[in-house]
Amino acid sequence: MVKALKGVLVQCDPSIKAILLKIDADSGNEYIIEDLDEGTLFVKESKVASLKEKLKVTLKETVRENTDSDSE
Amino acid sequence: MDASSDTMTANPLALEVLQGFSGTKLELLYRQPSTALAVFRRMLPHLAKTIVMAMLYMPNPFLASDLDAWIRPDAVAEKEQALLVLSSLHVMKTAMQAQGLAQHKSFGVPCRPAGDEVVDIKILDEHARRQWEDILYYMVGSTTVGVEGKSHISDATKSLLELGNFVDKRGRITQTGFTFLLQEVNAQVWSLLIVYLNHAPELLKMDPVEILSFIFMLGSLELGQGYSTANLSSTQKQMLDDLADFGIIYRPSPSTPFFYPTRLATTLTSDASALHSSAAAPTPTFDTGLAGGSGAASKGYIIVETNYRLYAYTESMLQISVLALFTRLTMLFPNMVTGRLTKTSVQRAIAQGITADQIISYLAAHAHPQMLKSTPVLPPTVVDQIRLWQIEGDRMTTTSGYMMIEFATEAEYRDTVEYAETVGLLVWKSDAKRCFFVNRIEQIKSYMANRRGRA
Is any Cβ of chain A less than 8 angstroms from the Cβ of B419? Predict the structure, then answer.
């Protein structure tokens, strides 16, 4: 019998996916329902916003960004 | 007619509202010839117009198969679309009686009171621009730092903007508001009127049919002509105050027994081209987007250099405020501002809901004539960088929907996934795992039920 599961499909680069998997593992599998392929994850709907937030924080910590050259 | 002009003719927002109306409501609406004309002129796709015209004088109902014979076989999709619109608007049944355009008061009763000063088109344009810009300026004004805001719009309009979700409770612009802001004026007027239409009935105890037929009537009035308020219903008289506040009509004073439609009103139900042709008129008009308060309204004023510097020759606070949404403005001169597109400023705008494409099209639409001499108009480096800034802030795309799993047979899976793909619901699939992801499920459900019925 066919089943339909409600959730959110997350598509991203493999590098970003690796970070997402780590976030998930650190929090005791709170976010991800299934790891689908190298660029796709199936995520709990209620957790997407918080996952996005965590990704943003992680990226800020790990990726050094070029600051704007605002000199005129 | 090509496809692009087709979409312009069928005003999607207003059409949606009309399609939501029940049959009896629509029938009431169609009693007004001006409404019927407006719906016909502005809402219907071209093919639907042709069908209506052809059927107009037929005494008897005619066979659907005869209709098929009129349409080229390769245009079946267009035909279905046209018929869908026609039947959802209940035109198929009622068009004939409604199109009997007799001499009727619904086109307004012209009136020119003697001894009164003549209100010319220039005053009307001035009024319309001032009122409409005030509304827009109220929306952007809150985000601008260091620019003194002065807005004369009424509390009713403010709460309307809030109801339409264009600004939030504290009067700050929202994502919907941004999209609204970057539309052309005609679409903006419609968006606002539709919010009005959705909320006025419950708040002010107004009849939606009367509101809508009044809006359509305004669309068929003539610019520069005064119209009597005597034959309007009480609901419609009530609307006059609000409409004057939007700048859609003009009244010398709230107690006068006549009103003048402005250009915002008269272009409501005409084709989009009406706006362009009005731009060619000797009086300065505002045609697309956020034109300026100065006389050279529709002239471009923005120069963008390859080094992301931006110079805008404008005195309009509205234009400056819009630029400030996605530019780091540095200097304000009497006739121009300078600034710079930076990663921070663009990403701030994106975080607030403006898209990179909206920024780019705004810059291109208002490019200075000097910039228009080169092709492409905007420096490609800047355009690309704005897009890249957007992608950077958005590392993962999310789609909510349903994962379909546990198909019993390969055939069942293949069949369903193919169906999902053709109707455009499929987001992702894995043949190996025999599962796929769709963004909406109702259609799939009924398809699978049908399939089981057949099997």
Answer: no
SS3 B328: strand
Q: What's the pLDDT score for residue B309?
A: 93
CB B255: neighbour CB atoms within 10 A? 6
State whether residue B409 sits within 8 Å of chain A by CB: no
Q: What is the pLDDT of residues B100-136, one digit of tens each?
A: 333 334 444 554 443 344 556 777 777 777 788 778 8
Written as six digits, the tokens of B199 are 């909320």
Domains of chain A: 8-62 (3.30.70.1220)
Closest CA to B166 of B147, B183, B146: B183
- Looking at every residue in chain B, the average pLDDT score rounds to 71
| One-character DSSP codes across B168-228 | -TTS-B-HHHHHHHTS-HHHHHHHHHHHHHHHHHHHH---HHHHHHHHHHHHTS-TT--EE
**Tally of CA atoms within 13 A in the half-sphere of B93 that contains its CB:** 8
Using CB atoms, which residue from A3, A8, A16 is nearest to B399?
A: A8
- Residues A54 and B3: their CA atoms lie apart, in Å, by 44
Q: Which domains does chain B have, with CATH numbers?
A: 3-102 (no CATH), 121-266 (no CATH), 302-393 (no CATH), 402-454 (3.30.70.2610)
- Closest-CA distance, A58 to chain B, in angstroms, reads 12
Confidence of residue B416 (pLDDT cuts 50, 70, 90): confident
Asked if this assembly's ipTM is beyond 0.85, the reply is: no
Model pLDDT, residue B106: 46
Strands (E), B288-327: 302-304, 309-312
CB distance B290 to B136 below 8 Å? yes
> How far is the C-alpha of B330 from the C-alpha of B375, rounded, in Å?
28
B135 vs B79: CA distance, rounded Å: 40
CB contact under 8 Å between A3 and B400, yes or no, is no
Q: Out of A8-12, B224-228, B332-336, which region has the weakest mean confidence (pLDDT)?
A: B224-228
d(CA B367, CA B378): 8
B448 CB neighbours in chain A (<8 A) are: 2
